[in-house]
Amino acid sequence: MKLHEYQAKALLASYGVAIPKGGVASSPPEARQVAERLGGACVVKAQVHAGGRGKAGGVRLARTAQEAERSAAQLLGSRLVTHQTGPQGAPVGKVLVEETLDIGREMYLGLLLDGSAGAPVVVASGAGGVEIEDLAAEHPEMVLRELVRQDIGLQPFQCRRLARALGLSQEPTASFSRHLMAMYDLFMAKDCSLIEVNPLVLTRDERVVALDAKVTIDDSALFRHPEMTELRDWSQEDSLEAKALQAGISYVRLNGTVGCLVNGAGLAMATMDTVRAAGCEPANFLDVGGGARPERVAQTVRLVLEDTNVRQILVNVFGGIARCDEIAQGIADGIPPDRRDIPVLVRFLGTNAEEGRRILQRSGLPVHPIASLADGVAVLKRLTAA
Q1: Residue 333 belongs to what domain range?
Q2: What residues are labeled active site?
Q3: Phi and psi of 98, rounded to 5°?
Q4: Disulfide check for 199: which of 39, 106, 167, 187 has CB 3.0–4.6 Å away?
């Protein structure tokens, strides 16, 4: 679960990280009021779950409160298009209005999970304000890493070692270390998968301040943090993915035309490979789950077909915990009347597979039984060529 910048900074501040003075606004008059409290000169920042806001016009300097109000009026209600949003952009419902700072240096500081090491890792660089992925590709020597041992946690000496490598003097080193330890405490306490401060700035009077921030919470750990779920902004997520998440369905929307309905994540990935082998593209990743009842399957099918790009459905189910007859009944019940001409390719194996095939044959749907994924490739090629 991603947080907006203003939410991420509020969390960081609660753990002792210094952030700029400011406030969030949902209307132009609110933005003007915040700017007036800051003395007029400020920065107005669109709040969207995407990077690249500055290049897209989503971060604007204002010299007066009136300019801040005009900038907010232009941003609020618009859709900001960045290299991370795609052409549809992301809706701007709030802006963050903050003080300007006299910046001496910009740095990058992040905490994330290293899957290969099975532990958190601190990533730092003296080149702040740029995409860390580009920096790592072009100048890997500028990216510093400090692996955190799970049994003892982040240690002060590791913070000091990073600060020295960044070229910080004694007083900023102490402040940098306090900030990094606070970030680590937040990372562990809230089950974060990412905390990124880019840039972390050193002001000319040698204060360390988080000028921008991203925080992502592990979805699988949200049951431990019910207060965090209230921070989710559903408007920033794909509408179908948001609907699936709210219903507890494992669904990721893609750009293809073949809707996939599968039980088991590994089998779902193999099914998507099959679709590509046929020269097509999957419309989604979907794991219907091991104990899906007909009503849940029907809900899932309707969700898949809300994507108007879907032209075929490929069903690939191994009946273990799930029963093929119940999956079949859900498919027959879930396809709406205006989409009942859509071809349904079905591969059933396991529990009640034969009964499942009979249910679909009696449903009146254009069903194409397939015995193997190779058969599925052949049928998809034939259907797309027709």
Answers
A1: 238-385
A2: 108, 196
A3: -135, 160
A4: 106
